[in-house]
Amino acid sequence: MTRLNLILFLTTLAICNINCTAQITSSKQSTANKSGIITGADQTEKYLPYLKGKRIGLVANQSSLIGKKSSVDSLVSLGIKIVKVFGPEHGFRGNASNGAVVNNEIDVKTGIPIISLYGKNEKPTKEQLANIDLMVFDIQDVGCRYYTNINTLEYVMEACAENGKELLILDRPNPNAYVVDGPVMTDDKFKSGIGIHYTPMTHGMTIGEFAQYLNGEGYLKQQCKIKIIKVANWNHDTPYVLPINPSPNLNTQQAVELFPSLCMFEGTAINEGRGTYMPFTILGAPALKGKYSFSYKPVGIPGMSERPNQKDSVCYGLDLRKYDINNLRKSRQLNLSWVIELYKAYPDKANFFGKERADTGVSPFDLRIGTDQLRKQIIAGVSEADIRKSWEPGLQKFKGIRSKYLIYH
């Protein structure tokens, strides 16, 4: 190659590199500007200096992303020393079924110990926190009392407070932040693994806001020192499409936004789509044959639902996959009509809501709702309007409390 050709080749290569870099930058900018929302985790410039030189414990799962890459993998590649990862329900990689036992293990990819915070060890122990300088919480939530990430948040905050550890929260939008609805749980007898907070069924807060609520409302014996990296360009009315499934059975955006309304069916004879690849978008039961034309058959699916309600039986009911979610957004309410409709259609009404436990007198349905009043109202034929009216005193009181802890307006 002559000297002239070499110069031309290098010049062309340099121009190509500049153009390619410009195209990549432009692509990134257009992607960012398309939604405008930037999660706390994606604003690395705001917290990486704070992590440098510290031994980090990270509470994370598959929804913990920096860009399109796992937060764990990203932080390790950026030179952050992560000594332990704590995983909630469904495990760190998010591939365990609902309610499944998740054991401690070593992450194959990074060699970092993974501590399960679901099951017997819900709260990090003093020994588990001993070699940690700073805890980081980065998990996508969906804004429901019965979605167990907020339970994990409280236990982590409690452990940090007791052991003098600060908690850094990389906040994420709540896709259901527009709705604060349902009866407020006020009686301790309705506390369980699927609900330990005195909130409505949907609380309308992000993880960061909920952490401030836990600190401020006396849920902890002593307050936890927290630092929040806020979401940019988002408020409670901004729609947010999740970039990754927050759990195995919330595998579409439709399911994420129907979940607050459909999860209450888990305490009934109705299958809510578990055991199919359409969870939380369909409803049905064998006993509804002849009353609905839509049908499906739930089966055991490893990593999603091994033992779904009505397993291996053909179910008949409602197909909500094309339901217009804007109806929920406009009303800012849970959909209560579906549970009333299916109760009225169900032939064996005595077994619709499941049996109350002999020791507590609480049914599975009541645990999700946080009270036995809704069940009794539906059985008694109380109208939806009157049911909602009975919620109002508790909702108004909660909204007043909640307003003190909101970050996004």
Structure, explained:
- Residues 56-253 form the Peptidoglycan beta-N-acetylmuramidase NamZ N-terminal domain.
- Residues 258-408 form the Peptidoglycan beta-N-acetylmuramidase NamZ C-terminal domain.
- Residues 1-22 form the signal peptide.
- It comes from Pedobacter frigiditerrae.
- GO terms for molecular function: peptidoglycan beta-N-acetylmuramidase activity.
- Mean pLDDT is 89; it is low at 1-33 and 94-101.
- The longest helix is centred in the first third of the chain and has 33 residues, at 3-35.
- This protein is α/β, with parallel strands linked by helices and 409 residues long.
- β2 (65-66) and β3 form a beta hairpin.
- α5 (149-162) crosses α6 (207-216).
- The protein has helices spanning 3-35, 48-51, 71-77, 126-129, 149-162, 207-216, 253-262, 326-331, 337-345, 364-369, 373-380, 384-402, and strands at 55-60, 65-66, 69-70, 81-87, 105-106, 113-116, 134-138, 166-170, 226-229, 282-285, 294-296, 315-319.
- It is globular.
- 32% of the residues lie in helices and 12% in strands.
- It has 2 domains: 44-242, Uncharacterised protein PF07075, DUF1343 (Rossmann fold, 3-Layer(aba) Sandwich); 253-397, Alpha-Beta Complex (Aspartate Aminotransferase, domain 1), CATH 3.90.1150.
- It is built from 12 helices and 12 strands.
- The strands form 3 sheets. The protein has a 7-stranded mixed beta sheet, with helices on both faces. A 3-stranded antiparallel beta sheet has the order 10-12-11, with no helix packed on it. Strands 2-3 form a two-stranded antiparallel ribbon.
